[in-house]
Give the backbone structure.
Amino acid sequence: MFGVVVCANDVQHAKPNPEIYLKAAKRMKLSPKECLAIEDTLQGIRSAKGAGMVCLAVTNTMPSYKLKEADLVVATLKGLSVARLRQLFV
């Protein structure tokens, strides 16, 4: 299902370092500003934001108040529209 996969073995620095997100964007031949990162931890959010990406946080592992550095925090991806996600890039 995924055209590009980047995992911890592909990078030298762990999150919150943005290396993993920058490498993923490069492999997809996209600017980080064109990418949406989906995260569920503060370290992941900081990694994505450090790479210059828009970040959506899902409250899988942490409560919403701990994920507030993301551009949008949701309890579930269910019901989240493409139109709503596009608004994050404006």
About this structure: The two ends are 28 Å apart (CA to CA). The chain has one domain: 8-87. The first strand starts at residue 36 and ends at 39. The mean pLDDT is 97.
